[in-house]
Amino acid sequence: MNEKKVIGEKALEYVKDGMVVGLGTGSTAYYFTSKLGELVQQGLNIKGVPTSKKTETLANELGIPLVSFNEIEKIDLAVDGADEVDADLNLIKGGGGALLREKIIAASAKTFIVIADSHKNVDTLGTFPLPVEVVPFGLEMTIKHIRDLGGKTELRQQQGKPFLTDNGNYILDTNFQEIKEPKELEKKLNLIPGVVDNGLFVGMADAVITIIDKKLVTVFRK
Which residues bind substrate (predicted)? Predict the structure, then answer.
């Protein structure tokens, strides 16, 4: 079974005619957006808000009509992947480098659905390094402050140069081992000057579509 395809396409059940839909970034979100494009070609009337330039390009190729924030009052539904999901539906996101736009869109959505294959389910967040988006200016000092919180940071690279987000910022992949209090860590990181935001999505997901014991399930936030 192609878990990502099955999970991504399952999320289409939440899409209704006339919705504004936040389009996620990543390998599982790809299947959601691709199938959504097929439905649009068949007459489904929706508008999309992409979480990255990569997703914007895909949506344009598929003929999905896109809108910007200044054209809408709300996002009805956002569907996106995750790098880790814990039992309380807290997430680590940002493996693809789009965490800031993903968080803005998720926070603006009436309903936020996460699509994640079985390998993303964990008891405690932290095995996957936490992405932290930072401005290039004062990078060394920002790294020092993050290390003071117990994180071991590594500047994400791409082709021998610092990886740049769609916003022109850097990503620090940060290992905290186990993140037992994600809400507190999220706040502490975002109080550091130079940090734009981080990949902890705490209490944001309304539901997670995943595979548990080889069965497709939808887990709702308690």
Answer: 25-28, 80-83, 93-96, 120
Which of 201, 218, 5, 1 lies closest to 109 in space, CA to CA? Answer: 201
User: Any known ligand binding at 81?
Assistant: yes
Dihedral (CA of 85, 22, 59, 157) sign = negative
Q: Domains (ranges, CATH) in the chain?
A: 3-119+202-220 (3.40.50.1360), 130-198 (3.30.70.260)
pLDDT of residue 137: 98
Reported as a pLDDT band with limits 50, 70 and 90, residue 1 is: confident
* CA separation for the pair 198, 105 (Å, rounded): 14
Asked whether residue 63 is marked as a ligand-binding residue, the answer is no
Q: Choosing from 102, 140, 178, 186, which is the catalytic residue?
A: 102
Q: Is 102 a catalytic residue?
A: yes
